[in-house]
Amino acid sequence: MLRSLIYTTSIACLLLASSHAAAQRTSDARLVLRLPIDDRARSAAVTAVAVSPQGDLIAAGGDGHAVRLFNGQTGELVATIPAHRDWVRATSFSPDGQKLATVGADHTLRVWSTSGASEPLTVHKCAGPLQAVAFHPTKNQAATVGFGDHLRMFDFGANEEVGLRGCACDDTRAVAISPEGRWAAAAGRNGVIRVWDLDASGGSFDLPTDGRRVRSLAFSPDSGVLASAGDGPAVRLWRAEDWQAGASPTPQELLIRPGKAHAVAFVADNLLAVGGTPNRITVWDTDSASPLAQLAGHTGTVASLAISADGRTLVSGSFDTTVRVWDTRRIGERTNVTGSRKFARLIKEENYEEAIEIARGQVEGGANVIDVNMDEGLLDSEAVMVKYLRLIAGESDIAAVPVMIDSSKWDVSEA
Fold this sequence. Notes:
Layout: H1 2-19, E1 24-26, E2 31-34, E3 46-51, E4 57-62, E5 67-71, E6 77-81, E7 88-93, E8 99-104, E9 108-113, E10 122-125, E11 130-135, E12 141-146, E13 150-155, E14 160-166, E15 172-177, E16 183-188, E17 193-197, E18 204-207, E19 214-219, E20 225-230, E21 234-239, H2 240-244, E22 252-255, E23 261-268, E24 271-276, E25 281-285, E26 290-295, E27 302-307, E28 313-318, E29 322-327, H3 341-348, H4 352-364, E30 370-372, H5 381-393, H6 396-399, E31 403-405, H7 410-414
Parallel strand pairs: 1-26, 30-31
Antiparallel strand pairs: 2-29, 3-4, 4-5, 5-6, 7-8, 8-9, 9-10, 11-12, 12-13, 13-14, 15-16, 16-17, 17-18, 19-20, 20-21, 21-22, 23-24, 24-25, 25-26, 27-28, 28-29
């Protein structure tokens, strides 16, 4: 009987491992929203989306010139902001969620109260069309880039421009500031990625690229990785530890052919969402450089992505005129020490309370089975497997879902 159980478990795990070779495909967006255009029988193409840090508000704009605020849970329209006189290119929430910055082809940066006021708190006029905006995570400031070769920093407390940094990016399209506030990066048509050290030491440097247009930049939640995407055949991952060590950075590449990448957003430190011309979003496991999931449903280019602070809500905007809201708990952290750095860290730290929440998140996200793997050289795999399974068995909502013991070790399977 025991041998039969071991054999069955081993075969099941083999089948499960085989299924991981191909990305999971789902079209189950939690919400699908549209941006109707007044006096015209169509909706706006969506090129700008943002989600508030708390996940309670979603902002979206495009060629309709207005920005809509939606309830992040229900999708109900909260407010319509007459934001710009031309195409809305990007939007970003402040760290406290009280302000919303928008930039457009009308050459302006505008900052709004998220309470839905019809007049902006401030307006800054620039020399050309603006393409991207990013709030600083700890200061009342934002960075903008656009048609030209500069990154501009604006301080909203002083209501003035406080920094002008040369970029040489030639029609700058993307900007990002690291979550801890140290690094800013910008890139554009000629493929140059310039990174600035925002600490007192200052200074900047360029990352080597293939010379093709960069459309999107994103830092990982731990600020350790910068992702760049655009017209080339790969999304590139640059590690901050390399450039801090003074080494010539060599990026890791995620091959995305066919198509072009228009937007990237980190779901977690090792999970990157990529959207573009294939009309879908692919979530990559950056540790293994393999696709983990494909989010299907858009019928046009995915032009913009945004992620909530807790990583649970991914928002996408597309030229198909829809905004789609995805629950990342179906594709996010796993109860697998070899597939999730966060889960491995929690188990090693014996932080079982948070480790249990990862399993609960999978169940709440619709998982039909919980795959548990504890195969790691520095762990007593048998002991931690037994402890973890006993703990989740005591949680009625988690215990309602079958558990798959995923292990190559017989003693763990037998335990």
